[in-house]
Amino acid sequence: MKLKILVDNQAMPGFKQEWGFSCLIEAKENVLFDTGTSPDVLMFNAEKFGVKPEQIDKVVLSHDHFDHTGGLEWILQNPKVKVFALDSFSDKTKQRIKEEAELVEVNKPVEISNGIFSTGKLSNSIDEQSLALKTEKEIVVLTGCSHSGLEKILEKAGEHGKIHAVIGGFHGFKKFDVLKGINLIAATHCTEHKKEIQRLFPKAFAECAAGKEFEF
Ligand SMILES: [Zn+2]
Ligand SMILES: [Zn+2]
Q1: Could you say which architecture CATH assigns to the domain 2-215?
Q2: Nearest ligand (C-alpha, residue 128)
Q3: Which ligand minimizes its atom distance to the CA of 20?
Q4: What is the distance in A from the centroid of ligand 1 to the CA of 190?
Q5: I need a surface site. Which of 84, 88, 125, 184 has the fewest CB within 10 A?
Q6: What is the structure's pLDDT at 188?
Q7: Domains of the chain: which residue ranges?
């Protein structure tokens, strides 16, 4: 399974950066997790990777914030795409998806594609879903902003097996102990305590940026 970071707050040379997050999962099917803030940046970086909207089978939107749903227009050029959004998303976002593609409303944990599982709706102040990916190296967790609390996400994703890696935004996460034993920690996007996480887990910490690839 290959992960390509399409949008992040930082970017590798030749890629564009913006405040937002998007990651393409290449497995049996190609699943796009979040879409960044703007269709232009998503398109630019996807093209740099040689990825076109038609190659994407499914899209998962972690939560209804502009920096995760903003690039939707790029992917909606593919009318065959299936978009998995939480049932609590705004009518505006849901309507826009339904105009162009198929909308699948998520509430409970569900298998999105072979080995790619949504945690289902986890709520704090904001509803959010994250992904647990079953790879050859056990479970890889993919998060948007972790508004629901990373510890809750890891617990839910951990039901699928031992967690090997976690990639995405950690927001204000501070319960650092729960990261012990994870082999790869790519805290990025909105992570407030990135420096602290890097200091505590120097071996596991990995820089993340648009243009980066991970293989599991
Ligand atoms: Zn957010
Ligand atoms: Zn965000």
Answers
A1: 4-Layer Sandwich (3.60)
A2: 1
A3: 2
A4: 8
A5: 125
A6: 98
A7: 2-215
pLDDT over threshold 90, residue 137: no
* Residue 185 phi, psi (nearest 5): -120, 100
- Confidence bin at 116 (pLDDT 50/70/90): very high
Task: Tell me, in angstroms, the distance from the centre of ligand 2 to residue 170's CA.
Answer: 9
Closest CA to 107 of 126, 125, 91, 127: 127
Mean of pLDDT values over 84-112: 97
C-alpha 125 to ligand 2 mean position (Å): 14
Q: What is the pLDDT of residue 125?
A: 86
| DSSP H or E run through 199 | helix 194-200
Per residue in 183-206, pLDDT (tens digit) is 999 999 999 999 999 999 999 999
**Closest listed ligand to the CA of 37:** 2
| Ligand nearest, relative to CA of residue 147 | 1
3-state helix, strand, coil in the chain (%, to 5): 25, 30, 45
Which of 197, 66, 62 has the alpha carbon at shortest distance from 118?
Answer: 62
> Ligand 2 centre from 15 Cα, in Å?
19
How does DSSP assign 74-91, residue by residue? Answer: HHTT-TT-EEEEETTS-H
Q: How far is ligand 2, taken at its centre, from the CA of residue 139, in Å?
A: 22
Beta strands 131-135 and 116-118 are antiparallel
Residue 63's pLDDT is 98
